Amino acid sequence: MFLEHSTDTVAGRLKESIPVTAAINPRESMRALPRFAQPFLTWLTGMPLIDEKPLVVWTPVGRSLAAFAIVISGLLLGCLILRFSNWWLFGLPVSWLITANGIRDLYTVTEHYCIHDTYSEVHWVDVLVGEVISTVLLAAPVDLFRADHLKHHAVPRLDSDPDVLFLKSTGFHRGMTRQEFRAYIARTCVSPVYHGRYLWSRIVSNLTAPAHRVAMTIVYVVILCCALTLFHGWTVWTVIWTVPAVFLFQVASLVNYHSEHLWDDVSGATGREAIARVCVGRFCGEPVPATDGRGTFARLGLWAIWWVRIFAVHLPHRLLILPGDQSQHDLHHRRPRSDWANAAFVRRDDVLAGAPGWPIGYIDVWGSLVDHLDACVDPYGSKKIVRHAPTAYRAPLR
Ligand SMILES: [Zn+2]
Ligand SMILES: [Zn+2]
């Protein structure tokens, strides 16, 4: 379906010789929109245009500060909403979503790269930053995160992958149909058992970590309890913090652990082939509407639907499930020491270069949260998956 929104929209100078990938890339269809909208669309989709230059070149610290600022913004918005009360309370989900985005960014991006020692390149700094984040979020301490996650890198999607063991413990099993999988996700996201067990595991991991790390948790909890009691903040904290930090965090975890890799059977594969077959880039959005030959009202209607879907479907997905470089999680598996703070552009260039050194090209999945979940459980049946050639194939446009 993506072929119909093909290379016609690509800038003229690229028309002589264009990577085959551009012909099946919905992002390219968005060139039809004004230039000022392009950085937003790049952030939202997770995919730059093939000739786009980054508006900002990020540093790891810059990424973390931005995530921290997002958390503070979400919390302040929540405080304001509670202050005005009444109808304003309907705005609380927006504050929860913003806070959850910042929290998930700090955990799945900053702490994640700290445990890989690719945050500051100074080991003790990475450990310190990771431990502070995990303490405040009541998330997996650095040692535990590192041990589990390095096993995940060694055997993604095999039965010994800790992420696979976790997902199986929530009721997932290989071979689910799309319908069974959707029902299981919906059921688990609201399951008190799932959330209770997950929260308990977070508490236990924070109290069974190395002594210095347990001390950090105890000091943090004592200070937090004293402050909330002194300033009568328990109700506000419960509303604005625990919903994103417990409920939404754990929903995002479940969905992210599934959709960040494909449930391809790689038990018979080895090495880079086994890794490449289960790694996927997740991109939000869809081609712009085809309006040629339509009347003014039809055109306006199609564009209105497209923009409503951008803000009501794709934006919440991007915020909750795909903070930071989660869209480019496959780049991280293929090239763990790449410039993750600018992953969207690094991945694009690696795709265009043909993924040198890899036997299988990059795999993209486009669309909504449902499309991404369908693709992960049905990787050879999904029409939203694009498989790139593993070499820099260039073909002239017709
Ligand atoms: Zn990793
Ligand atoms: Zn992974």
Automatic annotation (TrEMBL):
Keywords: Membrane, Transmembrane, Transmembrane helix. The chain crosses the membrane at residues 64-82, 214-233. Pfam families: FA_desaturase. One of its GO terms (biological process) is lipid metabolic process. Residues 87-342 form the Fatty acid desaturase domain. The keyword Membrane applies. It comes from the Bacteria. This is Fatty acid desaturase domain-containing protein. It comes from Paraburkholderia lacunae.
